[in-house]
Automatic annotation (TrEMBL):
Pfam families in UniProt: Glyoxalase_6
InterPro entries in the cross-refs: Glyas_Bleomycin-R_OHBP_Dase, Glyoxalase_6
Classification via PANTHER family: CONSERVED PROTEIN, HYPOTHETICAL FUSION PROTEIN
Sequence ranges assigned to domain Glyoxalase-like in this UniProt record: 8-115, 134-234
Descriptive protein name: VOC family protein
Organism: Arthrobacter crusticola
Length: 235
């Protein structure tokens, strides 16, 4: 039994606007998925981006943010310019003036990084290269088992997982983790792989260390991983 990752869902005060930003940045069309604006599946990624109504005032740094990996300095500059034209802004999170990556906030204030080209850790990953999260190693171990993905990094409390077929990595940077003062704006949506069922998968995830929470799932069961990060299991 295993769950498949089908969506990265953003809760937004204005889902249509946020979908337009990310669609323009990633060059994807907007469709309607489970009643919410969504982007068609990204090449080499394996899951969609979905945007639902919700989220009030931002209470602090998101527990997870997307990283985009260009192939050249020119592509990095073009991606930054495109993001700014679509409504992003530069964001100072202490990266310093010598940082080669660019930290931005989308129109809702959600953090994203446009990385410098090169480097071996994300080699072979698509442009939407990773989801960078905050959490101890046990969170990485949980998601490795929940999705049956490969544990591709496990050092000094930092972990990363990746699907056996490749695609983006999901990383957790260890501690310290900023205090969690409300529901995350970004969460993952999972669905059971046949022949498993939602009830069976919920039971399996609970055994792995998940808990039941109100995750704002309109069409599924709300849960949280061992780090308190919400996710939804949908049919």
């Amino acid at each position: 039994m295993v769950c498949e990752l089908i969506d990265l869902t953003f809760s937004s005060p204005d889902p249509e606007r946020l979908a337009g930003f990310w669609g323009g940045l990633l060059g994807r069309d907007i469709t309607i998925e489970r009643g919410a604006p969504s982007l068609t599946a990204l090449p080499g990624v394996g899951f969609s981006l979905r945007f639902v109504a919700g989220a009030g005032e931002k209470w602090g740094p998101n527990q997870m943010h997307p990283d985009l990996k260009p192939e050249s300095i020119h592509e990095q500059a073009s991606a930054v310019d495109r993001a700014l034209e679509l409504g992003a802004r530069h964001l100072d999170v202490g990266q310093g003036p010598d940082a080669e990556h660019v930290v931005l906030a989308d129109p809702d204030g959600n953090e994203l990084c446009i990385l410098e080209p090169g480097g071996s850790f994300l080699a072979g990953c698509p442009f939407f290269s990773s989801l960078a999260g905050a959490g101890p190693a046990e969170v990485g171990y949980f998601w490795c088992d929940a999705l049956a993905w490969n544990l591709v990094w496990d050092q000094a409390g930092e972990t990363a997982v990746q699907a056996p077929t490749g695609g983006p990595k999901i990383t957790w940077g260890g501690g310290p983790v900023a205090p969690k003062l409300g529901r995350n704006r970004l969460h993952l949506d999972l669905t059971p792989s046949a022949p498993s069922t939602i009830d069976a998968e919920v039971g399996r995830l609970l055994a792995l260390g998940a808990t039941h929470v109100n995750a704002g799932c309109a069409d599924g069961i709300g849960m949280a991983d061992p780090g308190g990060n919400e996710f939804c299991v949908v049919g």
